[in-house]
Structures are given as C-alpha cells and as structure tokens.
Write a structure and sequence with these properties.
With 251 residues, the protein is α/β, with parallel strands linked by helices. It has helices at 53-65, 124-139, 141-145, 148-153, 176-185, 196-206, 224-234, 236-249; strands spanning 3-8, 22-29, 32-39, 42-48, 71-80, 90-98, 119-121, 161-168, 189-193, 210-218. The protein is 34% helix and 29% strand. Bound molecules: adenine.
C-alpha cells in the first residue's frame, strides 16, 4: 500500500496540508514532528526537515525506517541557477547533485564516496506526475490562488515548469561568484537549494522512489535574502498546497 512521505524544509513550504489532514497522529522523533494521517484519501506522513543536507538526510531516513513510507515527495523553494528561470517558475528534479561534495583526490569531484555516483535520478513516474500537477496548477488554480497584488509585486506572469538538474549544498547562494563557482563546473543546473540531493542519496540507498519539486523564490544573487523571505511568507504555501493536491489526485 502507498504511504507517502512529504518533506519540506520550512513551515511555509507545507502550510495548508497539515491543517486538512484527517485522522492525524503526531509523533516527535529526533526533534522533528512527524504528522501521520490521510490527505485526499492517501496515507501520508508530513514532516519539516529544517534546512541543510544533514537535516534532510536524518529526516528522510527516519521517514523510511520508523514510519515505513513507500514514496517520498519533497516540496519547497529554490534559487534560480539558470538565467532563463524567473521567480514563480517551477522546477521538477530529474537529477540531483551535491555541489559541495569534494573528496578529491580520493574520489572524482561530486562523487558520493563508495556509491560510484555523483548524480541521483528521481523516480520517472512520480516526477512525470509532479510535472503534470505543476502544469495543471499554473493553468488553473494559479490565477485564483495568488492575489493580483502579489502577482504584480513578485512579477509573476505566466510561470513556466521545467524539469532538470538541481544542485544542493550547505550554502545559501546570495552572490554571483558563489553561483558561478557551482555553474562553471556543473553544466545545466536549473536551481540551487540545500536539501534535495541529500534526500535523493538516502532514497537511493534505501531503494525508495522519490520526487522533488521546487518553486523559484529568488535568483541566487544579492537580492536573494529579501526575495527568499518574502516569497516564502506570501507565495510558497499556495504552490505547495495546490501541486501536492493535484499530485495526489493522480493516485
Ligand atoms: N533556497 C531558496 N533560495 C536559495 C538560495 N539562493 N540558495 C540556496 N538555497 C535556496
């Protein structure tokens, strides 16, 4: 039977989902609250990992080992690494890489020691469903879910949905040079964040299918600290709620 683990780093990336869960049981483990129940008829466990790769890895392992989830979905925000992407666009991860992993000269740059891998693939079926859910959200709910005032303020026009490479590391990217160090060596990175590739590695090691969706909150530059906080406060939850709802409706 399907039991879906839903992870976000921060409360604002998951607001709305926990509130409408049915038959809720909350368990605290390792300083995190695991909220089990049903969302639109599907058994789910929602949890906030907090920020960073270790936080995300510990949360993912606990979801799998203690809560027995069969699939994992991560929803959250990210900085744009590709200049085509705008605030409000959506990225579904096809692959994830840890941009701060470097065990040279023992192992090739970015390779996770003893796995032989640097890039981890998300589950194709779940990712396709997430893409469909995100596109449906943009086509339908988006215009009513986001107030016109906020659309203007964040210059959200007609967001686009992308699928590709996400790079994760224990670093908030708020300067051009920081971003360039990542994108000079790793081609085709669409977005940067701080958890996805850690979730991907743990899911790979436990054989659990996963998918990751990120809304662009900032352009990974000097404006990021302000853009990130405002987007998180005003917009992120609308995206997460609507995309997860449409994703679950496909099951
Ligand atoms: N998540 C959202 N924006 C980010 C950024 N600029 N750097 C790292 N993680 C992020």
């Amino acid at each position: 039977p399907v039991r879906l683990g839903i992870i976000s780093a921060l409360r604002e990336e998951q607001t709305g989902l926990i509130e409408i869960m049915q038959d809720v049981v909350t368990t605290t483990r390792g300083m995190r609250d695991y909220v089990s129940g049903r969302l639109w008829g599907i058994e789910c466990v929602c949890v906030l990992s907090r920020i960073g790769k270790v936080a995300a890895a510990a949360t993912t392992a606990t979801l799998i080992e203690k809560f027995g989830v069969s699939h994992i979905l991560f929803t959250g925000v990210a900085g744009a690494a590709d200049s085509r992407l705008r605030v409000g666009d959506i990225v579904v991860a096809r692959q994830l890489v840890q941009h701060d992993m470097n065990a040279e000269p023992l192992f090739p740059r970015y390779e996770i020691p003893l796995t032989g891998l640097s890039h981890f693939y998300s589950d194709q079926i779940l990712s396709k469903q997430l893409l469909n859910a995100a596109e449906e959200f943009i086509r339908t709910d988006f215009h009513s879910a986001i107030a016109d005032y906020d659309k203007q303020r964040f210059r959200l026009l007609q967001p686009l949905v992308y699928e590709g490479l996400i790079a994760s590391g224990d670093e908030f990217i708020a300067h051009d040079e920081q971003l360039r160090k990542i994108t000079d060596r790793l081609q085709d990175v669409l977005a940067v964040e701080m958890e996805g590739a850690a979730v991907a590695q743990v899911c790979f090691e436990f054989g659990i299918p996963f998918a990751i969706v990120r809304t662009i909150s900032d352009s990974a530059n000097e404006d990021s600290p302000v853009d990130f906080v405002q987007f998180l406060e005003k917009i992120a939850a609308h995206y997460a709620y609507s995309i997860v709802k449409r994703f679950i409706a496909l099951h």
